């Protein structure tokens, strides 16, 4: 292989999953066993957080966290919080494509594992499985970018007056 071919090969984009893991997991069921006798359909509050951070040598950790609370009237049936994370090797990705990769691609990979962990944990706690609905991470990413751009534009408009 010529030196030029080696150099071109070393500049190829790299995106590889190194490790997938549960970083944090928590379950609270404060009103058991009475919660199992609830006849009322519980109300669910489900919130997601996504973040990523870089390490040396092109390694990034992406983490997707869900906090799910089930309540009947004013009683908490259960509260589940799980952070599903992944260690990714990312190299030679253009700067403009790195943020969408971390904001869309990585969470899309992590979500099925997070969904399974939530379902399994709620079942182990004695409740019916909580099945998280699919998420369009691209739409969320674009909304966040639009909101950020509007906020920046609004901030600039206020400083110019």
Keywords summarizing the entry:
39% helix; 161 residues; 4 strands; Bacterial Protein-export protein SecB; 3 helices; alpha+beta; 36% strand; 4-stranded antiparallel beta sheet
Structural write-up:
- By secondary structure, the chain is of the alpha+beta class.
- It has a single domain (about 15-155), classed as SecB-like (Bacterial Protein-export protein SecB).
- Helices cover about 40% and strands about 35% of the residues.
- The protein contains 3 helices and 4 strands.
- The chain has helices at about 5-10, 95-125, 135-160, and strands spanning about 15-30, 45-55, 60-70, 75-90.
- It has a 4-stranded antiparallel beta sheet.
- A hairpin with a 2-residue loop joins strand 3 (about 60-70) and strand 4 (about 75-90).
CATH architectural designation:
Roll
Whole-number count of domains: 1
- Given the C-alpha coordinates, what overall shape results? globular
Order of helices and strands: HEEEEHH
Topology:
Elements: H1 3-10, E1 14-28, E2 43-54, E3 59-72, E4 75-91, H2 95-124, H3 137-160
Antiparallel strand pairs: 1-4, 2-3, 3-4
Concise description?
This protein has 161 residues and is an alpha+beta fold. It is 39% helix and 36% strand.
